Amino acid sequence: METPMHYVKIIPPSDLLKEFVRYFMLFRSNIPNDLKPIEFPLPPSPENFLCFYVENAAELYNSISKSKEKQSNSVIVGPNDKLFQIKLPHRTFLIRVILQQGVLSRILKMPLTELIDIDTFDSNYILPDMRKVNDRLSFDLSDMEAIGVIENYLNEKFQKASKPLAIDTALNQLIQFEGRIRVDDLAKISNLSNRQLERQCLYRTGYTPKYIARMVRFVKAWNLKEKYPELSWTNVAYQCDYSDQAHLIKDFKQFSGINPKQAQFHFNNLPLDLQNDLLFER
């Protein structure tokens, strides 16, 4: 059977890993060299993930700092509040492990504030054993065989992770309910004072609860416009609980470095159906 030019697949984790992993995202492409490679924008996200490039890593362009970066074959993505333009090679196979809130801090055993302003982190520095996983992956493996290799690694890695805290549950709820949880309620769920909540949230995610809520709302607006590019920006602002369009424009400029009009060009020219609502699944 002829290999499709490209496809995206979402795979849930095994029951043993659900405490740590939200889902796996696989992407394969095998595009003829005489065609243009796939290139598209990736909005900021409160999600952390591990990324394995089985074959041919991508190139990232930071729209705010204007910097370019060729990714290594195994990458850790922590706090990310910037828009990236991603350019994929003609032939590539990548797997992202989307982590539950707080898990990256638990396996690294460090505050994620230390990863702020680092676009992506080469695993050689803090999780060098990720490279061993890359050595066992190949383009010829089936999707489930590749997931099996990664799950075996994760089962060992997560056994050594620090214990979960109540704030981890609260942060997952903050995302699942699209940022519509008050800080006071998050503190109650976490059995913390508001000040303790902010301190633990910074340690676990690199950001404050209010900043995460803003980012989640922006991601919702981005996803909505990506899925329905014909929607007016006024309608998007209303559906995403912005008080007015001016606040939406402010968030677009802060999180993406572009205004909604410039973003419209991206939405009208996406090479893939990238939008999904997995971020907000309960």
From TrEMBL:
Domain HTH araC/xylS-type: 165-266
GO molecular function per UniProt: DNA-binding transcription factor activity; sequence-specific DNA binding
Keyword check for DNA-binding: yes
Keyword Heme attached: no
Keywords: DNA-binding, Transcription, Transcription regulation
Pfam families membership: DUF6597, HTH_18
PROSITE patterns: HTH_ARAC_FAMILY_2 (PS01124)
Highest taxon of the lineage: Bacteria
InterPro entries: AraC_XylS_family_regulators, DUF6597, Homeodomain-like_sf, HTH_AraC
PANTHER family in alphabetical order: HTH-TYPE TRANSCRIPTIONAL ACTIVATOR RHAS (PTHR46796:SF13), HTH-TYPE TRANSCRIPTIONAL ACTIVATOR RHAS-RELATED (PTHR46796)
Protein name in the entry: AraC family transcriptional regulator
